[in-house]
Amino acid sequence: MRQHIVSLKEMMAAIGRHSAVPSFWRRNPSVRVVDPPVFNSEPTVSSNATVKASTYCVSDGKKPLPGWNMLELEGVGAEARGAATIIFYTRKGIIKTSVSLRPGKATKRILWVPFGVKKIAFSFLASEAALAQLKVEWVWLTPWFAQSRLARRLINNHGSYKGKSKREVVRHLHIESVAQGCSWRKVALAQYNQTHAKRDYALWIKTTEKTVVDDPQAIIENLKMAPLFSIIMPVTLSDLEQGEAPFIATINSLKAQSYFFWEVFIVLSADINDTQRKALERYIPPTSRINLVRSYHRTLAKLDHQGFIQAQGDGVMRISWGDQLAEDALCQLAKAWNDHPEAQLFYSDEDVLRADGKRFKPNFKPGWNPDLLLSTNYIGRVALYKRRLLWQLESEQTDLLSNLTSRAAVDYALALTFMMWKVTHGNEKSVCHLPAMLYHRSEDFPHPLHQQDAISLVSSVLKQQVASAKAVVHPGLLESSVRIEWPIPNPAPLVSLLVPTRNGVDILRPCVDAILERTAYTHFELLILDNQSDCPETMAYMDDVAKRDPRVRVLRWDHPFNYSAINNFGAAHSHGSIIGLINNDVEPVNEHWLTEMVSQACRSEIGCVGAKLYYPNGMLQHGGVILGLGDVAGHAHRFFPRESDGYAGRLKLVQNLSAVTAACLLLRKNVFNNVGGLNEKKLSVAYNDVDLCLKVRQAGYRNLWSPFAELYHHESISRGADDTPTKRARWLSEVAYMRRTWGKHLDRDPAYNPNLTLVHEDFSLK
């Protein structure tokens, strides 16, 4: 592209004429200005000595043109955080805006540059080292192009515009601007900026939490059934040693409940004396529904059980010393009880409460996720069980539950026991997740789940099931997690790895060679599916590798590129009982990647199995697929550092997800065939893997992602970007098909949480 630096005088002269755009702009839709950053000599230092609010200015001769511009920031180091503040100094004053940074990847943002700009300054919360490679570019945009990009962004990333056409979006914005008495540009930018905005938790509490809760009184009046809830609170001597203030806070949160059908049983350990008991009684009115119970036991499991046998409620839950319930917690649970009559377990989101009353560390949980539960107790503390079922679970698992000594272990044991019951007796409606922050854990009493307790509990549960009796439980990647090594059948199944390719020997060779050389699971065949390669070097390599390794076969697909059709062709000619969809631009990180994936794919309840993929620079490329991100679906945790735990530790936990990418995907061949394989008619290139996963899930299988299968992925190098009108039209038709076919599934992913964003891939708040 030719570079054009245009003076402000020429710009104003052009705008003064009837033609709003100079002639060379009509020939070339963008004017690019590259700004070398010049840092000020005295950056403002933040509270973190290694991070500074560094500011640089654009010189007068390097200013972008007034009007619509695309700002591009590249080379931002991983230390940079938050957003860059952009300050326009104009003749009429100062105008500020901000741009969220994407460390490790180019940040692009459409901005309106006002007229009369004298100087532009940027402020970053980053060290100068993190900005050493910073490159700033301004690309002037024609109004029609800016309008098109704005509309497309709103369709893909704004909930109010999902499924609309660009014409409908533009019309809606014009109508809204008339209603507000302001310019179309102001309304469009405000809506556009919402798709980039990220809110912290404190702001979410103020602006969103209260708006999503219905009037408690109206809820209570409309209840067909008002269940009695029994709340059990075991108290040990170590609790009392922390003082009475946490106990008072817990009791007050119960008294403040808007729902009134509840009872509490505070079960006192045997080592609590009469003086200490009487001290607690001062905070409990004699006619209260709060009952103090003396016990001869000392272990938490037995204290918990004693409270349970005295409870009369329809539902039973626990609360810990110092923890608090949200004011409407029981009210919302009562509503869910009526709305979901088949549910036997109800759980909600939770956060942590500081001594000063401020809430932080929100944990917005997914829906029912058995493999995540086998990795760690993601259910957490607020778990309401129907009493009849709980009585059955406790009677059947006396040995497992009777000797537990920690609160977290008791919670986890009950959740695992429920999971076992659900396998044989329950269904999808047996669990209800309330996406609301109903429980506040005390920061002073964290009650963590110890890894050894988790290993013991999961091992005990697996031994009771014939299908998983030979599974071995190891320490997980997090302190409170485990890893299950699932057995591989004997004899080991043959795996057919399907690798579509066209030319590109430079990426095919390292992929194939690495798989052949760095894969401990050797019982596989590798089918190179050649799509009309005409490069002599590529063809020579394919012939050579097929001769020197008997596991390799080359199959020719002499038709136009269609990813779905190529893989369906490969699957039809495969000999294995397990199919592996493998991109020609992936490379294993370690030799155990296929062993892990095969062991998961052999489980009868599991459908598609996905891997953890990295960009060549080590940043995360794929941590599973979240439905609804962007237009149809997106990759969870994309661009997170390799060592990151991810949101609530999920980058280091085996879990069920609605979909995984076909860049590296395994599933049993009979499952693949039963759902019709990949959709080669409607989804020739994009979203065919998401469609496959959803068909598999609809057939009754659980899709799974594992952090223990790691590969590098040079994303879409061979095929290229969708940067032509034909490719763009094809992509739009595939998006439309996915919305028509799976719309209601795309808008509510059970592996995600409706309070989390569908704009960004980082699990930030809406």
Automatic annotation (TrEMBL):
Pfam families according to UniProt: Glycos_transf_2
GO terms for MF: transferase activity
CDD domains: GT_2_like_c
Keyword terms of this UniProt record: Transferase
InterPro entries for the chain: Glyco_trans_2-like, Nucleotide-diphossugar_trans
Gene3D superfamilies linked to this entry: Spore Coat Polysaccharide Biosynthesis Protein SpsA, Chain A
Keyword Transferase among record annotations: yes
PANTHER family: RHAMNOSYLTRANSFERASE WBBL
Listed name of the protein: Glycosyl transferase family 2
Protein's organism: Vreelandella alkaliphila
